[in-house]
Amino acid sequence: MFKKIIAPVVIGILTIAAIVLYFGLIIQIIPFLWLKIVIIVVLVCLAIAMVYVAVDRIREIKKEDIDDVVSKY
Q: How big is the CA angle at 14 (ends 13 and 16), to the nearest 5 degrees?
């Protein structure tokens, strides 16, 4: 079961890291403060969505394992 949970966690972390690096580079280039704030808000929203999707996927994996045990009988 734990092997199935590792993949969503790793993918989630890598995705958030890539988005942070990408937006971090963009923020360095943009001179306007208001635009930087908007980009940071978008970044936070994307990170929250990624965490929600990863948690939801982990719940599905746990539910599938329970359903597999019950369906054998």
A: 65
Cα-based torsion angle of the residue sequence 29, 31, 32, 35 in order, rounded to the nearest 10 degrees: 0
pLDDT tens for 11-65 read: 989 999 999 899 889 889 999 999 999 999 999 999 999 999 999 988 888 887 6
Decide: 39 and 26 in contact? Cβ < 8 Å: yes
Q: Which of 26, 48, 50 is nearest to 37 (CA)?
A: 26
Give the tokens for residue 65.
């394992």
Place of tokens 């539910």: 63
Please name the residues in contact with 39: beta carbons below 8 A apart, sequence gap of 6 or more. 23, 26, 27, 30
